[in-house]
Amino acid sequence: MRAMVYRGPYKVRVEEKDKPRIEHPNDAIVRVTRAAICGSDLHLYHGMMPDTRVGMTFGHEFIGVVDEVGSSVQNLKPGDRVMVPFNVYCGSCYFCARGLYSNCHNVNPNATAVGGIYGYSHTCGGYDGGQAEYVRVPFADVGPSVIPDWLDEDDALLMTDALATGYFGAQLGEITEGDTVVVLGAGPVGLFAAASSWLMGAARVIVIDHLDYRLEKARTFAHAEVINFAEQDDIVVTVKKTTDYLGADVVIDAVGAEADGNFLQHVTSAKLKLQGGSPIALNWAIDAARKGGTISVMGAYGPMFSAVKFGDAMNKGLTLRMNQCPVKRQWPRLLEHIRDGYLRPREIITHRIPLEHIAEGYHLFSAKLDGCIKPVIVPSA
Description:
The chain is α/β, with parallel strands linked by helices. Helix content is 27%, strand content 23%.
């Protein structure tokens, strides 16, 4: 089969790989019909995540058609159209039993922290991802769901991570009616977090980024107020001014490890790899939240330390909530919102790229060229 293969930082290409096979009776093999490049994939592409091994196939956002199932699989059959959450999880361990699918204890040798994630380094279990013609799906009776006939395939694709994660980010913010919500980052997760905040009762939603085309999308898609931090002397002071000098009730960090904004911190983290990620966005969140406010962290960070202003968070009485999204837990409510017309996830898709051109797709997305917000990979194109 043809698959995207990692060859080192900023080096990906399409190669011939062995088609995955059934390794366990609970496995399924899925023929991928759509995949996506996620902002989190760029952390791998840039060499930010440890134990990202040469030869790995990325891609934790994908949908497809069941090609083959193991002898124990009961809920799926060949020919079913399925959406697959980015979490690999067993469904029965201590954490899965509590709905913490992203923290499954049985699918990752490093499970003291994160569970398993498709295509996201050996830190997250070493599972090959869906930027390929076929992908092996473990625990096939637990993770994948058959795509409802009425659901658009692009919407289904975005439910596998970006939409679910953005919605989860707003959930973690514990937004109450009348709150002012600030979202850091106008990528796909930030856009979905902003749109979801309205559904949870926010009175104001403010999105902060430095790319005008992404801010325009936040304005039109998420109906948010926008601020370009590159045009401000001090973004925290700007947020304070627009919130009666109190700060935001909820701040959602949808940026993570490669935030721009402070040259020294960006160099020590993104360039010299001295930290698990640039702490800029998280520190802005701590400074911009009101005393007693809540910070929700959706941006991905590496396992190394980051120079976070934890003392300020403690002294302000902030609540910090964070996790990798337990995707399938969000699906029932998201399906309702999509069917009722409150969310139209596919509207953020800007590019469709054949699998053979995935190297160009990564460059386009990484360099923020051509107004790229969400690129979709089509293996059969």
